[in-house]
Structures
1.
Amino acid sequence: MSGSADRDKGENPAEETTVEEKAAPEVSEKMIPVYVMGRRYEVPEGLTIMKAMEYAGYKFIRGCGCRGGICGACSTVYRKPGDYHLYVGLACQTVAEPDMYLTQIPFYPANRANYNFEELKPAPEEIFKLYPEVFRCVACNSCTKVCPMDVQVMDVIAAIKKGDIAKAATLSFDCIQCGLCASRCMGELPQYHIAQLARRLYGSRIAPRADHLEEAAEAVRQGKYNEMLRELMGTGIEDLKILYQEREIEPEMAGEDWQPAEKGYL
Ligand code: SF4
Ligand code: SF4
Ligand code: FES
């Protein structure tokens, strides 16, 4: 993220068109003041914090990925006038409000243990060894309160302390690794790294194997789809588009027993 020199010169940064800005929806003509790192800017009402900062002339070269609330790169911290609360959110998802004081924390330093995953056993002791600070949790629940994905972060840590890797993995499934939980932890835990290790162990070593997946993998190994793939690779782009548009789509309300008309590749 960097401040634009054009803005400093008083030029209108909205004229710096990019592909994304051209595609952006209409915004309100009403302008509101926001403060970015202490400096006041007038931005159109209704923009997300990320868009408001871009309108103000900042360019995100870091701290911005998906723009859709998924990558966790755009953690933002803000206060509102006359309100002692320190708010957090994702800049690409949170709408700017008048007189918001905001700044970005696209990276929050948090200890990430080094390990050779292949050597780890699916046992809680492995997590305790790599992250002994897990026992520094004082159950204050601050992490849960700041999580933009509503992950029950404190419960994730509690599950790990009890040795329930499966529960920790399931509870933390929606984590987007934004790091906001770590920014508030008085036990100084890197909760999201710990939870990620739990998910890796669960997904790789604990979750039951799906028989049908193994069967499908074996069919691939046996070359069941080779001919179809060769045919597709020899098809021109326009015909591929038609094939894609005319493909049979599973109905939204399809039952468990739904099958496509073409069953040759099942
Ligand atoms: S658990 Fe932590 S890192 Fe994951 S989404 Fe919530 S606040 Fe972000
Ligand atoms: S913020 Fe830290 S100390 Fe508080 S509940 Fe979460 S992990 Fe535990
Ligand atoms: S840019 Fe990816 S979550 Fe905001």
2.
Amino acid sequence: MSGPLLNIIIDVDVLPQFLYNTSSKGAQMIYPLAYSTWGKEELEAIQKVIDTDMYTMGKHVKQFESEFAKQFGSNHAVMVNSGSSANLLMLSLLKWKYKLTGDIIVPVVGWATTYFPIVQNGFKINFVDVDPNTWNIDVNKIEQAITPNTCAIMPVNLLGNSCDYRKIIDICTKHNLLLIEDNCESMGAKYNSLYTGTIGLAGSFSFFFSHHIQTMEGGMVLCSDKDDADYMRSMRAHGWVRDLPDDSPLYKKTGNAFNDNFIFATPGYNVRPLEMSGAIGSVQLTKWDDIMATRLANKNHFVSQFANKPWCRIQKEIGESSWFTFGIVLDGKLKGRREEVIDALSKAGIQNRPLASRNFLKQPVMRELDYIDNNNYEAADDIHDNGFFVGNGSKNIKKGIDKLYEVISSFVK
Ligand SMILES: Cc1ncc(COP(=O)(O)O)c(C=O)c1O
């Protein structure tokens, strides 16, 4: 395979800093937040698509969807241009296909585009605090937040960690609520034998640069029901029926392409992925086992260094986490000293970030949004004030983790 793209020299150590630099303050970067999983195979895959001169969603996207669904034991996969768009499709499915209205229960620590599609689809956000140890929705506070108008729960599997689905499913069954999962940070995580993102009616995934696999921009929805998948396929592309199978109940095709290709059956968007992204996704999946093995080896080192320290808490695993990043909440003698710690980390060349959305109720955009405030967000406030995360990725980062430990522990000597 040859082509102009292969002439680009990829330096996987430079790429993350270029794309993802936050606060290095001029220090030499020794431990970035994210690492590229690309090699020449991804460039070859892009070049192959370019050679066909067909760039818009087509057979490569379809192939990646079917490989992805198989990998995670789901019936259907619908690829989109981002994890945010995956969330948008799931919420629009609840509104338009399921005709739901009312409020949707979410954890108060998630991501901005966990919440926006809820409001954009006419629902109210119903915020629940997170658990102080798992940092996922506090399952013991869900029932008291349910209102007569609650129609669904949308947990977020935060930083690779599964939620406590046994309890969530029991609550959904008891109160007749639908379950959808924001799984954008947790590809590969498991609850019992099930992959997260396949437990509810639908689950979302992100393939953004820092995520487990990378199409750079890209996302997916998994679901088990064929009609739900058809509905989202239609909403993904203008609301038309062109990409649906002939037997879809949304529209019975006549065989007349002039007509069938311009039938609009759902109130859709255009959140299609590029064909290149599908081709890259298939290559990335062939690296999946290696990516996870390296991430979990890094995790073992991180946990061996930071577990059971009186001056910090790390995330308590439920099921099998896929360890998207390594979160730390400063505790004990270090509580209230995050600014100093972060400054020292940045000066040492260790990239860091606030822990996901922090307490989203404290974000200025909340002025604009319709929500239910259940008060008392003690765990989320602690994350807000004392939490941050550093990277994990498909590269041996044990030296970076050692440096991280050295810098933070120097504050308690
Ligand atoms: C929990 C969560 N939901 C949704 C998203 C959105 O994904 P994307 O960046 O692909 O739009 C992210 C992004 O990291 C996320 O962390």
